Amino acid sequence: MPLEPISITTRIDGESFKDFSLFHSFVFQNILLGISVGSIAMLVLAFVNWIRGNVPILLLCLGMSVVFPIVYYQYFKRKINAQVSRSEVDQKDLSYTLNLDDNALRIYAGPDKKYYKWDDLFRVYRTKKYIYLYTKEGAAFTVRLRDLEGISPDELWSYIKERTDQVKEIAWI
Fold it and tell me: What separation in angstroms does the CA of 148 have from each of 93, 100, 101, 123, 166?
């Protein structure tokens, strides 16, 4: 049974840009996995050095396993903040309208129009604050859940899940 079409207007501001950049890098591109593997390797080396009684190397490995992820994350956040400042995202009108119906997703950004069949979507993620509609590996449209009018986030998520199987919910972000 066809459902009513849904129209959502979303504005991308500095906060949304930062959140998407963090999500895309740490979750979609699995940078978090790489950082975790590096930290685990340092913990294994610390354990080996504990067994051998090599306390200075043990302490160095333990320190690196904790400090490296923190430093990397802070560096990444600083880079994103600088990019937001340079691009002046908050001063620009970066908004678009998404029209969703049984057959397709239509995006209107000013005079530009894009059309994607549901089967064309690469992946769709839901977090606590957003739904990211990836049209290909490096390109996504963001739906801020606080922008929804007339439909709840759960209703929108159900609507999307009924049309594509490329969905993944990430509750911890």
Answer: 18, 13, 16, 21, 22
